[in-house]
Each structure stands twice: as structure tokens, then as C-alpha cells.
Design a protein that fits this description.
alpha/beta, 8-stranded mixed β-sheet, two-stranded antiparallel sheet, 11 helices, 12 strands, about 35% helix
């Protein structure tokens, strides 16, 4: 492009002063030799690196202790040599997804399988007078020890940890910055963990707004999105029941009233048996079941608007939200369900299409 313009009378006028041209040339030369630590150039470089769309994008859902099954899902995918292009995780999904991309899945699985009803108490630092039962410092220290100074933008694949800004209700996608605090913010279950102050925002569990973050994968135009939904399949949970249809004869006279049940102030009923939850319903039970219902409704709504290409739903009926000591069972169930569905997808030619 010429810097001059020839007019009709044959005279020449200068479009740009020489000093302006030199400034533009200087900026261009500096951009070529700039250090990768420059914020704007670093972000551009990071975006280009993460736009690899070969393989599948994983949307790892929240589910507290049931989330250990994500480990089994990823193991099955790796075993089948299915490439993963990106991971978006909510809550425990962010924990597993972030550790996997950071090369720490083996350490996480070893930690999960080592948990017993007694050892989980080592990582629970109860606190009073704050915005959560558990300060979360012990778990944060464990994450910091394993993940160190790893940054999200330095991972080999794109990663998004979904959190909720408690002040506004906004859905927050943490896609840069330190990995450990982003993961911690994503699993900060309200009422249990205190909110996490991260990047100038007060953040809590992302399951409040996006329990299975398919939309985060779609936003980056991923070709194939596989969602891992940990929500328990509860029959008729979304049904509407009219009072006139409730038969008095169906009332269980042996079921104690809420006032008769010893209430627990502990946020986790360690070692609870999900088959006896009606007999143990207290403050903990009410809070957990309420969270179950809310998450179920949100998942139905979000997946209807952003349906995944493939959905895997491990059979976790006997795994409660606080059954952290059942990690081995959860991992195995996630592995088996994924292997089963991959066999069906292979017969349909799906895996060939990916490769």
C-alpha cells in the first residue's frame, strides 16, 4: 500500500507523515521480538495453542463424592486411544479434569482410593462463625502441593473450571491463572466450604449454575462433546403431585417425624448409607437432598438447551454425595459404563469418525 496519493492535477500528497510510518514499523518490529511474558501476546499465543479440535471435548459434571467416577471414565477413554481436545469441569469434575491435564491423575486416584471413613477427617478443618462449615485450608494445601505453580494457560489442552460468583450469580469460566485456586473455587459447595476469593471475585461451586458444562465446550466450537452426568437417576423426581392424589394409606406410620430425628450439625455424614437416608434425615440430609433436587432440575434444563453428542451416566445409585470412602467403587463404575458405551459407539462407527 502506497503512503502517497497522486491527485488529478498530477501533484502528490502525503497520506501519512514519515514519523507515523516509523512508529507503526517500530510497533510491528517490537511485536515480533516481544517476550512471551507480554500479557496480550501471551493470551493470543495461548488461544492459538488451544484451538486443537482433534478428538472429543469432555464436560465433566459435578456430583461431590460421586465425581471419583470421572477417573474411571478418563481411564477408559485413554485405554481406547480416544484423544481429548479440551476439558470443561464443574466442581469435582474440575478437580479430576484439571489434575488429568496437569499429569497428576495417578496421584489423585491414589489419594481417592486411600480415603476411608476415618482418614477423610484429616482433610476437614471445621470452622465456626464463617460462611461455611469447612475452611478448606487442608484440602487447599494438598492441591497446592500437588499442582504447585501450574497455570491453566500452560496446560497442553484447553481447560475451563466453572464457578459461580456468589455476589451476582454469574457463571464464571476460569480459563487462565493458577490451576489450584481455580479448582478450589469450582468445588466450594455453599454452606459447606467457605467461598474462595479468586481473581477479585467471591466464588462458589459451579454446580449452582452449570452442573454439566457442555455449553463451555460448545463455546469453543468443539466438534464432538461428551458429557459425564453424575446425577442419580431418580424416578419421577420432576413429577408434579397434587394433594388430592396422595393416599392416606400410603403414609408410612413407622417413619419418624423430623422433630424426632437427631439432627447433625456436621456438613458430611461420613460413612452414611444411602439406603437408610430416610431414617437419618437431619440437617445434613435436608441440605444434601435439596442440593440433589436443585442440581437435577438445572441439569435437565441446561442439557435440553445444550445437548451433548454423547452422554455417559455411570450407575451410581448406591453412591451418595458424601460417600468419599467409596472411591474405588465409583472409579470402577465409571470405567465399566464408559467401556460399555464405547463398544456401542464403535459398532455405530463413531470412534472411526473421531480418529
Amino acid at each position: 500500500m502506497s503512503t502517497n496519493e497522486t491527485l488529478k492535477d498530477g501533484s502528490v500528497t502525503q497520506l501519512f507523515k514519515k514519523s507515523e510510518i516509523d512508529k507503526v514499523r517500530e510497533v510491528a518490529e517490537n511485536a515480533e521480538t516481544a517476550s512471551s511474558s507480554a500479557p496480550d501476546l501471551h493470551l493470543i499465543k495461548s488461544d492459538l495453542k488451544h484451538y486443537n479440535q482433534n478428538g472429543i471435548a469432555l464436560a465433566l459434571g459435578g456430583g461431590v463424592a460421586r465425581g471419583w467416577s470421572h477417573i474411571g471414565v478418563i481411564r477408559a477413554l485413554d485405554e481406547a486411544n480416544i484423544p481429548i481436545s479440551m476439558i470443561a469441569g464443574t466442581s469435582i469434575g474440575a478437580v479430576v479434569g484439571g489434575c488429568y491435564l496437569a499429569g497428576k491423575l495417578d496421584e489423585l486416584e491414589e489419594f481417592a482410593r486411600s480415603i476411608t471413613r476415618r482418614t477423610i477427617l484429616r482433610y476437614v478443618d471445621f470452622t465456626l462463625g464463617k460462611s461455611g462449615f469447612i475452611a478448606g485450608n487442608r484440602l487447599a494445601e494438598r492441591l497446592d502441593h500437588e499442582l504447585g505453580d501450574i497455570r491453566i494457560e500452560d496446560l497442553d489442552k484447553r481447560f475451563i473450571a466453572v464457578a459461580t460468583e456468589i455476589d451476582t450469580g454469574h457463571e464464571v469460566w476460569l480459563e487462565d491463572g493458577l490451576l489450584a485456586p481455580a479448582i478450589r473455587a469450582s468445588y466450594a459447595l455453599p454452606g459447606v466450604f467457605a467461598p474462595v476469593t479468586h481473581m477479585g471475585k467471591h466464588l462458589v461451586d459451579g454446580a449452582l449454575v452449570n452442573p454439566v458444562p457442555v455449553s463451555a465446550c460448545r463455546a469453543f466450537e468443539q466438534k464432538i462433546v461428551m458429557a459425564i452426568n453424575l446425577d442419580r437417576e431418580t424416578f419421577a423426581r420432576s413429577s408434579v403431585v397434587r394433594s388430592s392424589s396422595i393416599l392416606k394409606t400410603s403414609h408410612d406410620e413407622n417413619l419418624p417425624s423430623l422433630e424426632e430425628i437427631p439432627s447433625s450439625w456436621l456438613p458430611f455424614s461420613f460413612g452414611s448409607n444411602t439406603t437408610t437416608k430416610k431414617q437419618k434425615l437431619g440437617i445434613t440430609g435436608v441440605m444434601i437432598e435439596a442440593f440433589n433436587i436443585i442440581q437435577d432440575r438445572i441439569i435437565r434444563s441446561r442439557l435440553a438447551g445444550d445437548p451433548p453428542d454423547v452422554i455417559i451416566r455411570p450407575k451410581l445409585e448406591n453412591i451418595g454425595l458424601t460417600d468419599f470412602h467409596k472411591a474405588s467403587e465409583s472409579i470402577d463404575l465409571g470405567y465399566k459404563q464408559t467401556k460399555f458405551q464405547l463398544a456401542s459407539l464403535e459398532d455405530a462407527g463413531f470412534l472411526e469418525a473421531i480418529s
